[in-house]
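Internal tracking record. Fields below are filled automatically when a chain is submitted to the structure queue. Please do not edit lines marked as system-generated. If the sequence contains nonstandard residues, flag them in the REMARKS field before resubmitting.
Queue: standard
Priority: normal
Entity type: single polypeptide chain
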Amino acid sequence: MSRAVVLVEGESDRNAVLALAARLGRELNGVEVVAMGGATNIGHALVRYGPDGLDLELHGLYDEAEEGYFRRGLERVGLGNASGRGLGRQEIAALGFHCCVVDLEDELVRALGVPAVEAIIEAEAETRSWQRFLAQPDRLGHPMTQQLRRFMGTKSGRKIRYGGLLVGALDLDRVPPPLAALFSGLC
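SYSTEM-GENERATED OUTPUT FOLLOWS
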């Protein structure tokens, strides 16, 4: 039986959370990691798992651009601010939901560094695809971290697979802050 739920936007985030749990040797007994199919589904997930639903302990990760969905969803299920002003990022974090700047892949790419991520691409035998991607005219001038994030989303299933691969290569002393905060809350 579940005692807690970790709500994440998609399968790549779910894969990364599960991979990190395995790397940390953390059993997630009683903790369900749920890919919601996008941030816009947070309201439905909170109704299902929150205080008026299954009443589970709530945790989650969200992308910076999706913060408004999470704020409004939390407020709608009664987890808002008693003062009447909207929840701030720190208040959202105190409720167990942690912001990834820009997104979880960006957090992982920054933690690993561009050369380490390119080594993963090479190990996955995707160097040629990566080179072709970088040669596209619309890719010129973009920061490499952005390029890497975008590349992961260009082929069906790649982003999901890379979620686990990036975590697998991560130095556990450099776990990105949102993931570290998530796991510290999962006692």
